[in-house]
Amino acid sequence: MTLAEIIAGRIAAEGPITVADYMQECLLHPTLGYYTTRPAIGGAGDFITAPEISQMFGELIGLCLAQAWIDQGRPAPFTLAELGPGRGTLMADALRAARQVPGFVEAAQIVLVEASERLRGIQRQALQDHPVAFLPSVEFLPERPLFLVANEFFDALPIRQFLRAQGHWQERRIGLRDGALALGLGPEMPQPFLAHRLADTKPGDCVEHAPAAAPIVTEISDRIARHGGAGLIIDYGDWRSLGDTWQALCAHEKADPLVDPGTADLTAHVDFEVLAIAARSAVTRLTPQGLFLERLGITQRAQALAQKLSGAALETHIAAHRRLTHPSEMGNLFKVQGLFPEGQRPPPGLNV
Ligand code: SAH
Predict the structure, then answer these.
(1) Which class would CATH give 3-158+212-340?
(2) Rg of the chain over CA atoms, in angstroms?
(3) Ligand 1 geometric centre to CA of 126 (Å)
């Protein structure tokens, strides 16, 4: 059976499903889901992420977290965690760079929160020099200082989409039309958690909501607030969701999310306001990725690496630096939000 047939069967039995239910099936179905069956990330996959563009990204994240660890008195042991580590590249680069900071790697207990069994295998390989523990979700994170990064993790969480009607909302649903998957709208209903959005939206506007996002931030920020630590959430998105940002990417091209479910990466922009409200720790100002990386010294690092390169490798390296930082590339679209304990210094590169 294909995933399309499984989803069609579910709709025939239950009626139209939410976009979130559909995303959950497409991305995380145990045998046919996208993260189980596809190469997904990297040049040969469907999309490329910052750590796959250049080693500089993971290195600077590693040094940022190591400096936050020094600023907080070098707690040991501590959890060094990543949510949705993909191919494990970011963590491998971070650990290599952070080795310059005496004691950091030795005190770190590496924890990866990863849903895909296949990606866990790839991550284990990428980090074979280090003991790593895998967790299915953040509730299982140990109760101790937590230094954490999540790059392009929150955009993969299933979203619900609501279209503003007059005083109420209609949820977008996926049903069947002539046997094929089709978008439709549920009945007009009040949505108490969107009450505050009636003031800044007009009929026809779309607001997205990722039900899993806020509880995840509450869990991690609670540990950071109580035991110390720092969190870096990096993703595309902005303050307060407005508009339909749901997209499918297949082989680096935009695709129709309803065609061939399970074969394309499905994402949506992250609403950082919701994350900030859910946090139990202090939260930094939302900072564009380009500015954050510049503050951490990406230009100096790029120049140092360039010394050893020439020809095509140098061209690729220069293009990678630009891609990560330039406002017309990832520099502005991607944002960084930091979590840190009240009364402590925010993680380097970020401010309040
Ligand atoms: N951070 C990586 C990969 C981003 S892709 C990078 O920057 O390259 C999203 C990652 O999150 C994948 O590893 C995927 O398997 C994982 N993921 C998605 N939803 C998840 C969930 N609900 N729980 C745990 N991991 C999840």
Answers:
(1) alpha beta
(2) 21
(3) 15
* C-alpha span between 247 and 255 (Å, rounded): 7
Cis amide bond preceding 102, omega within 30: no
Residues whose CB is less than 8 angstroms from the CB of residue 171 and which lie 6 or more positions away in sequence, other chains included: 18, 160, 161, 162, 163, 185, 186, 189, 191
Name the pTM for this structure: 0.96
Measured between alpha carbons, how far is 3 from 225 in angstroms, rounded to an integer?
42
What digits encode the pLDDT tens for the residues 319-338? 999 999 999 999 999 999 99
Q: Give CA separation, 154 vs 58, 131, 268, 349, in Å.
A: 18, 25, 9, 21
Nearest atom in ligand 1 to the alpha carbon of residue 265 is 5
Helix (H) or strand (E) holding 282: strand 282-283
Contacts with 293 (C-beta within 8 Å, 6 or more apart), sequence order? 56, 57, 60, 324, 325, 349
Domain ranges of the chain: 3-158+212-340
Cβ atoms 174, 258 nearer than 8 A: yes
- Which residue matches tokens 């402590």? 344
Residue nearest to atom 2 of ligand 1 (CA): 86
